[in-house]
From TrEMBL:
Belongs to the polysaccharide synthase family. Pfam families: Polysacc_synt_3. InterPro entries: Poly_Biosynth_Transport. It is a multi-pass membrane protein. The chain crosses the membrane at residues 20-38, 44-68, 80-99, 145-167, 173-192, 291-316, 322-339, 360-381, 387-408, 415-436, 442-463. GO terms for cellular component: plasma membrane. This is Lipopolysaccharide biosynthesis protein. Keywords: Cell membrane, Membrane, Transmembrane, Transmembrane helix. The lineage of its organism: Bacteria, Bacillati, Bacillota, Bacilli, Lactobacillales. It is found in: Cell membrane. The keyword Lipid metabolism does not apply.
Length: 487
């Protein structure tokens, strides 16, 4: 039985609300911490986080997705993954404890040893959380995500800011990360009715692993590729250069990741319920690409256009070197909406092997681009990201063309319809900025935002943007339904 539109819309609402709430708190926290801490301290934690992130892939990826995709997953499946995740995550923590000292020696940074050992303690909680998220996703009860994430993020914000204000430096970032994961997991534990039973099945584990291992490998390759740039920059350049590169990536990704995660969480379980109806999967994928890019495009291009006054006003001038990175990454992420929709569509059809086959050449191209760009400077490392993102979308388009008949021409057209009015907006904002160079930063920023919103709406109306009128008509229809009740 297919997933109702009401369930999908409700899931989108609560998941998007969750991501926006987390984004709001995260933005405030990163701004405050960036003012209190130095770029070198950020560079240190950025390097350590890479190793924990890579380790967490083995703890959280694969099995959670397999639980969502399996048509009749029961209590034994969830309990098996739960117990295996805890044991495996503790083993990973032990490995990180012993290799931490070697990593610190390799990078000539003694502080990495204790920081990495402490930060790895969040892995068992991540393992538990991945099972909780799979259970919530299967039930399409995304309201729980909203409350758990909001409470966990707010709690970690208090911890991080308080410690940074009291001079704990890099440790404020460490405990902010740990408290976020722990808080999220604890809240979900009390909110979600699911509890593991005292049972374990190697047969079920093997069945889930047969589907999940390909996604685990794919997730590891993506995470390794995403972070190998930080590892290389940390080794061949300074911690300060790494901080500027990381921060320049962080803020555009705050926009995209929140929307991207919201769409992915809802799309995959929704599409999985329609896994034999390829026409329906294509319809959901196209609508997702259009609506998601309609939201992402003006935010990314608007952010790129206003990057300099935003950074100067919020983070102070010491962080202005991140502006070029922000602009490059914003352009790079314009295709992420289509990537997410096509990837979830492929996974929903059960072709996890196809996902892995596509991802290997993407990572090879990415590694080659990194090796070449690393010789010329960090800014060229950022530019190499653009090559990989667009190459990745092309491969995904080829795959969806063969599986659900959603080809590259349709994908790029669905994106272009929303990117074009956003580009018009961005060019107008940049043109006006050149005449406001002598004005206070806050005045420039406010004028940029107001002008950008006005220009984007006008461009959408003139170009008769489909997504704009779709959302406008949906709001109007919903309002007309409520008016009689209010009367």
């Amino acid at each position: 039985m297919g997933t109702s539109k009401k369930a999908i819309v409700s899931g989108m609402f609560w998941t998007f609300s969750e991501r926006m709430a987390e984004q709001l708190v995260s933005v405030v926290v990163t701004i405050v911490l960036a003012r209190l801490l130095t770029p070198d301290q950020y560079g240190t934690i950025s390097l350590v986080t890479v190793f924990v992130t890579l380790a967490s892939v083995f703890v959280t990826n694969g099995f959670g997705t397999a639980l969502i995709q399996k048509e009749h997953a029961d209590a034994l499946d969830f309990s098996t993954v739960f117990y295996f995740g805890i044991v495996f995550s503790l083993a990973v923590c032990l490995i990180l404890y012993f290799v931490a000292e070697f990593i610190a020696v390799f990078y000539h940074m003694p502080i990495l040893t204790p920081v990495l050992r402490v930060l790895s303690l969040q892995l068992p909680f991540s393992a538990i959380n991945s099972v909780q998220q799979a259970y919530v996703s299967r039930g399409m009860n995304f309201k729980n995500f909203f409350f758990a994430t909001s409470i966990g993020t707010f709690f970690s914000a208090i911890v991080g800011i308080t410690m940074a204000y009291n001079g704990f430096g890099v440790w404020s970032l460490v405990w902010q990360s740990i408290s976020n994961t722990v808080g999220n997991t604890v809240v979900l534990w009390f909110m979600v009715k699911w509890r593991p039973i005292w049972a374990f099945s190697f047969t079920r584990l093997e069945q889930l692993f047969s589907y999940g291992w390909k996604l685990l490998v794919q997730g590891f390759l993506i995470t390794l590729y995403d972070n190998i740039r930080s590892l290389a920059i940390g080794k061949f350049y300074s911690a300060r250069s790494l901080a500027f590169y990381t921060k320049g990536n962080q803020y555009p990704n705050l926009i995209v990741t929140n929307i991207d995660t919201a769409m992915g969480r809802v799309l995959f379980p929704a599409m999985s319920k329609e896994q034999s109806n390829f026409f329906r999967i294509k319809s959901v994928a196209r609508r997702s690409t259009k609506l998601s890019s309609f939201i992402m495009s003006p935010l990314l291009i608007g952010f790129a256009s206003c990057a300099k006054p935003i950074v100067s006003f919020l983070l102070t001038d010491k962080w202005l070197p991140i502006v070029p990175y922000i602009r490059i990454i914003c352009f790079c992420l314009l295709v992420r909406a289509a990537q997410t929709a096509t990837l979830q569509a492929i996974k929903a059809t059960g072709k996890s092997n196809l996902v892995l086959k596509m991802d290997i050449p993407v990572r090879i191209v990415g590694f080659i681009a990194l090796m070449i760009s690393l010789k010329f400077g960090v800014i060229y490392v950022a530019l190499s990201d653009v090559i990989v993102e667009y190459f990745c979308l092309i491969l995904y388009g080829v795959a969806t063309s063969r599986t659900i008949n959603y080809g590259l021409r349709e994908i790029f057209w669905d994106l272009w319809l929303n990117v074009l009015p956003a580009l018009i907006m961005g060019l107008i904002v940049l043109s006006v900025d050149s005449f406001l160079s002598g004005c206070p930063v806050i005045v420039v920023l406010l004028l940029d935002i107001l002008l950008g919103i006005f220009a984007y709406v006008v461009a959408c109306v003139i170009l008769k943007n489909e997504s704009f009128f779709y959302i406008f008509s949906a709001i109007k229809k919903e309002r007309s339904k409520r008016l009689p009740k209010e009367g």
